[in-house]
Design brief:
This protein has about 300 residues and is α/β, with parallel strands linked by helices. It is about 30% helix and about 20% strand.
């Protein structure tokens, strides 16, 4: 569901190099750009000043730099959290990364590098296509590990489903709550701002939905031992609506500020099974982001509460 495009600042020398990757990177495409070494952009700026770019068509230096700033602003420029030895080449530093990081990376080195890492002359753009679909049995922790990089590279996450219940009718923690706990665990050191949870109001089977005080009590029961996002965990209980052409809780979505995932079943599914599809079409995503991240869904909210921690 995600990969990392890692390249040396000095590897981009031709206009054709640029064309091979600039429109393939971004969270909706499942491809992040490695900020490796961490001051990658300043290093690239220095390199760009030394290039002859007269034949780069309508892409000038300013537009190229703006592209990487756009990646940074959309949390698609990803730090690899590994020390960089400036006495060694970029290629040797890359080979020194953990096997887990290397396995998820598409590495592009300088031309004629001695480490036999592929360069832009040998890269086919088709290699940058990342699968947008996953199907299989997933526990809550496995589910979060699969999508973890998206959950740590956003300010907001919204969970949209009729069945996003915190506890069941017997008062037991649900698999959905275990999923949220796993997300809070991996976000301990990130700057996640807010979690928004939408669910259908059903106080007959779930009495905690009857008022704000009961909601806060159960939210505390579920999450008091975890680091809570800056603006809290907001739980919203809505009425069903008959018109499915507009935002509704039948869609089963996870939305971040940058990308949307459609789920084939509720988290993690009645049989711990799940179909997950990353939506790459920005036109398809824009309305859903407005509905759920910006909370302009127009649903009838029965009860709602925000938990800020103890």
């Amino acid at each position: 569901m995600n990969k990392i495009f890692a390249t040396s600042p000095e590897s981009i020398n031709l206009y054709q190099d640029w064309l091979k990757f600039f429109d393939k990177i971004g969270q909706p495409n499942g491809l992040f750009f490695a900020n490796f070494p961490k001051p990658w952009l300043p290093k690239f700026k220095e390199h760009l000043e030394s290039l002859k770019v007269e034949d780069w068509d309508d892409w000038d230096k300013k537009k190229i730099i703006e592209f990487f700033i756009h990646l940074k602003n959309n949390n698609s420029l990803l730090a690899l959290h590994h020390q960089y030895d400036y006495s060694k080449t970029w290629e040797l530093n890359f080979l020194n990364l953990s096997d887990e990081v290397k396995a998820k990376s598409i590495a592009i080195g300088k031309r004629n590098n001695e480490c036999e890492i592929k360069d832009f002359s040998k890269l086919s753009p088709i290699e940058l296509k990342v699968s947008s679909f996953n199907k299989g049995a997933l526990t809550p922790k496995e589910f979060v590990n699969l999508l973890g990089v998206y959950f740590t590279q956003t300010k907001k996450i919204a969970f949209v489903d009729r069945h996003n219940y915190l506890i069941n009718s017997q008062g037991q923690i649900t698999q959905f709550t275990n999923c949220i706990r796993s997300i809070l665990e991996i976000n301990r050191s990130s700057q996640l701002g807010e979690l928004i949870i939408y669910a259908v109001h059903d106080e007959t089977s779930h009495p905690y939905m009857k008022d704000k005080d009961e909601l806060i009590k159960v939210l505390s029961q579920c999450f008091q031992d975890y680091r809570i996002p800056v603006y809290g965990i907001k739980y919203i209980c809505c009425k069903e609506i008959p018109d499915r052409r507009i935002g509704n809780l039948h869609t089963r979505l996870i939305c971040t500020n940058h990308v949307i995932f459609h789920l084939g079943d509720s988290i993690p599914g009645r049989n711990e099974s799940q179909q997950i599809t990353r939506i790459s079409d920005p036109y398809e995503s824009s309305d859903e982001l407005t509905y759920w991240i910006d909370e302009e869904h127009n649903l009838d909210v029965v009860t709602a509460a925000t938990y800020y921690g103890r």
